[in-house]
Amino acid sequence: MKYFNIAYFGSSDFSADFLEKLVTDTSIKRLIEVKFVVTQPDRKVGRKQILTPTLVKTVAQRYEIKVKFQILNLKSQINNKSQIKNPKRLEFGNSDLFGAWDLELDALKNIDFALVYAYGAIIPKDLLALPKYGFWCIHPSLLPKYRGASPMATALINGDKTTGVTIIKMDEKIDHGPIIAQEKYEILATDKRPDLEVKLTDLAFEMFKKLIGEDAKFFATWEVRSGASTPLELKNFGIEPLIEQNHQQVTYTKKLKKEDGFIPFENWKLKIENSPEKIFNLFRGLYPWPGLWTILPNGKRLKITDMKLYNFKNFITLKLLSVQLEGKKEVDFETFNKAYKVF
Q1: Which domain holds residue 330?
Q2: In the list 3, 147, 239, 245, which could disulfide-bond 175, CB 3.0-4.6 Å?
Q3: Which residues form the Formyl transferase N-terminal domain (predicted)?
Q4: Is 130 annotated for ligand binding?
Q5: What is the pLDDT of residues 257-277, one digit of tens each?
Q6: Segment 314-336 mean pLDDT
Q7: Which of 313, 300, 312, 304 is nearest to 271 (CA)?
Q8: Residues 89-139: pLDDT tens digits?
């Protein structure tokens, strides 16, 4: 059984869950070693602006995996070392950029492949071919549908019944490369975005384990799979090639913003009565952040923290269950409305 040295690129909380599975799952620990992790730099968070690492960094440090800074995004600035007049003074965070760039190149050349899941930044084209098997990206949608930053939220907002996970070999375009593996997931009517994050991460991990553990032929024939032969020639030898995405059917998603969850107060009652399913789907996709919210007549911000959709003999109604008024704790909606009488 082949043993793989890999790098892991990720930044989101559910990406951290995937990383923890990689280093703790007994069925895969004997097959791979995560040599280093690349994640977003520490950021100031909350009202007190406390410098906080990504959960991916926290998990990596817990298991004593090397963590590298996000220096790989500076592609246009350091394509040629000769362009750097004073490399010893060029810094990113607390690391020497010139020396670290050399380290990144060598590190990537010495791994079998890099696995990317919700990393949140562009990786320079010149780096993609450095690992033996390239960069693989885990994307939580059925590509080419929902390329971009918010595939899980978008699937819920649109009321989709089916989504899934796609693993691709990365190229220079976002979520564009050929498909290595793809599997579907049937969305439950009760699924919110955190539910999809957990379920699709679990599905992605099972798909990855299958590729690593069972499909030794996949790696033995990697060069021809990646394009050295035509699809017909490959099939004549019993080898399935990587699948080119149907770029004519591509759809895109956008990065979520706080404003996406705003519904003007004067429209609330009308939207709940006339479009209960659309409002509920919007809630599912935007939960817990940015969430659905409005501005009350008194100028206070009100966030909807829970709601439920009821279907009785095809008569659909939406009930608000709990809310949180700006500066207050979360309460059930009936208690809030008795006190403020705004709905």
Answers
A1: 258-340
A2: 147
A3: 6-208
A4: no
A5: 999 999 999 888 888 888 999
A6: 94
A7: 304
A8: 333 333 344 344 445 678 889 999 999 999 998 888 888 999 999 999 999
Give how many domains the chain has, as a whole number.
Answer: 3
If asked whether residues 162 and 103 sit together in one domain, one would say: no
**Domain identity same for 263 and 250:** no
| Same domain as 229, residue 179 | yes
CA distances from 81 to 74, 87, 102, 128, 195 (A): 12, 8, 10, 19, 45
Q: 127: annotated binding-site residue? A: no
Label residues 166-204 b or e (16+ Cβ within 10 Å = b): bbbbbbeeebbbbbbbbeebebeeebbbebbbebbbbbb
For residues 182 and 21, give the distance between their C-alpha atoms in angstroms, rounded to a whole number: 20
Torsional class of 258: left (φ above 0), alpha (ψ -120 to 50), beta (otherwise)? alpha
Considering the chain, what is the average pLDDT of its residues? Answer: 86
103 is in an annotated binding site: no
Query: Rounded distance, CA 12 to CA 174, Å?
Result: 18
Who has greater pLDDT, 234 or 181? 181
Same domain membership, residue 294 and residue 210: no
* 320 has binding-site annotation: no
> Residue 91 carries which DSSP code?
E
